[in-house]
Write a structure and sequence with these properties.
Helices cover 24% and strands 24% of the residues. The protein has 293 residues and is of the alpha+beta class.
């Protein structure tokens, strides 16, 4: 395969140039991407001048997609594919969302360190985000390597963390920002689900922390003690040595492995400038409690 690669961080993350996803992905490319994801966890495909259908075709070639978005006001979405998540500040007519729009308030949760869909019974495997329109001085997206963070965790904390199970919910993460404007139906959709705190990453065999702002409890622990422990782990796992900060270019497609990374968006003036980014997400093989520990 005729493309160029370059490491982006000493621990993880890889840049790839020369892939053209306007063409249907070949089995050889899919195998190469899978292997690169298992090794590097974040893969940046440059210069992808693709539309929604081409992005969808590529995602479907890599594995089963999550069938539905986890958003508020689902009836007011502007994209044609129900599997595609609108990571933008745009109204259905293309104008900028009002400052007090609940969709904007809800989406501010993307500024928190999180793992996509950890709040679903079967969580996410890979996410792929495509930059269609970037604001001036586009903000970076930061990724943290949870395998390296686990390896560097003191043995005493590893022993405490390894058997723990946490409950995850979008309601927990949005509460950190003071957002609680959920309908009864949304509260039912976003009911907490259990996930292991420590996972074995299937592709590499390495252990990984499974952290997220969506965590709200640890089974068997008083909640204040649980949240203090999760905060300590998160502070450890997001030290600069474990973080790659991605500077976006037009038409970047960034793929990351939610099983062994966390990520967060960085802010920009979203009341003044437009941003249009679109994400598809692969579903993992099973709930974490059913996967090999």
């Amino acid at each position: 395969m005729n493309f160029q690669v370059r490491p982006l961080h000493p621990l993880f993350a890889l840049e790839v140039e020369g892939v053209d996803l306007r063409q249907p992905p070949t089995p050889e490319l899919v195998r190469w991407i899978d292997a690169a994801m298992d090794r590097h966890a974040v893969v940046v495909l440059r210069d992808q001048h693709i539309d929604d259908d081409q992005q969808l075709a590529f995602a479907e070639a890599l594995g089963p997609l999550e069938p539905m978005q986890a958003v508020v006001d689902v009836h007011r979405q502007r994209l044609k594919h129900r599997e595609m998540v609108d990571i933008s500040n745009l109204e259905v007519d293309g104008s900028i969302l009002a400052a007090d729009d609940r969709r904007r308030m809800f989406n501010l949760g993307n500024l928190l360190w999180h793992s996509d869909s950890s709040f679903k019974a079967t969580p996410a495997k890979h996410s792929m985000l495509h930059a269609r329109l970037l604001p001036p001085s586009a903000p970076n997206t930061e990724f943290a390597d949870m395998r390296a963070a686990w390896d560097a965790l003191p043995a005493a904390m590893q022993e405490i963390a390894r058997p723990l199970v946490c409950d995850h919910s979008l309601i927990y993460s949005r509460a950190l920002l003071g957002f609680d404007d959920f309908t009864p139906e949304e509260r039912e959709w976003f009911a907490p689900v259990p996930q292991r705190l420590v996972r074995r990453h299937a592709g590499s065999g390495r252990l990984s922390l499974y952290l997220s702002a969506h965590i709200g409890t640890i089974h068997g622990w008083p909640r204040p003690e649980a949240m203090a422990f999760i905060r300590d782990l998160t502070e450890h796992a997001t030290q600069r040595e474990f973080v790659y900060s991605h500077p976006w270019r037009d038409h970047d497609l960034v793929i990351w492995d939610n099983r062994c990374t966390m990520h967060r968006a960085r802010p920009f003036d979203d009341k003044k400038f437009k941003r249009d980014m679109r994400r598809l997400t692969l579903e993992d093989s099973a709930p974490t409690l059913e996967q090999a520990a």
